[in-house]
Amino acid sequence: MSLLSEIEECGEVIGKDTIDSFLACMQCGKCTGSCPSGRVTSYRTRRVINRLQAGDRSVLADPNLWMCTTCYTCYERCPREVRITDIIRAVRNLAAKEGYMSKSHRATASYVIKTGHAVPINDETKKLRKELGLSEVPPTTHKFPKALESIRKIIKKTNFDKLVGFDWDTMSLEERGEK
Ligand code: SF4
Ligand code: SF4
Asked: Does 71 sit in the ligand 1 pocket, CB within 6 Å?
């Protein structure tokens, strides 16, 4: 199966048109010039699109793939309407299936499994909420802990726990040796 077909499969929700849009890229570099992540990391958006066009599978194992913050700036500015951010999300899906999810993304996923939140509430946020006249905790799993059982059922049913490498016995991530 070609890399494009595999990405299409992983971007099923996003749609074939979106995935195929990277074929229109003319390598102008506007995306790289717009990218806030590229200013502080070695991530280069244009280069990722270039490697995808070439069918270069090594892009899946490249840790830079996880440096995109999905801010959509490149998506808005691309003169060829390449739907860059959505493509990167689909490519990440494929990379994750092959075991290349970044440690920080796995850690975020583990918070969802443990608390129902990618960013669990802390004392500082509770204090801020009170100052703003809000309830101390939001009406989520923080307020309704039983809802976490439903979330965990979905996680198990979809094998998200296996994808992330979450160990239910220790309630922590298995070691994969990534940076
Ligand atoms: S801005 Fe669009 S056309 Fe230009 S390099 Fe990036 S993806 Fe390609
Ligand atoms: S969506 Fe990702 S690749 Fe595009 S500008 Fe934002 S951080 Fe860079």
From this structure: no
- Please name each of the domains of the chain with its CATH number: 3-97 (1.10.1060.10), 103-173 (no CATH)
Q: What six digits make up the tokens of 118?
A: 């990618």
Query: What confidence tens digit (pLDDT) does each residue in 47-104 have?
Result: 999 999 999 999 999 999 999 999 999 999 999 999 999 999 999 999 999 999 999 9
Is the CB–ligand 1 distance for residue 31 below 6 Å? yes
Name the pTM for this structure. 0.88
pLDDT band at 20 (very low <50, low <70, confident <90, very high): confident
Nearest one of 69, 95, 115 to 178, comparing CA atoms: 95
AA letter at 19: I
Using DSSP's 3-state secondary structure scheme, residue 83 falls into coil
Atom of ligand 1 nearest to the CA of 30: 1
C-beta 84 within 6 A of ligand 2: yes
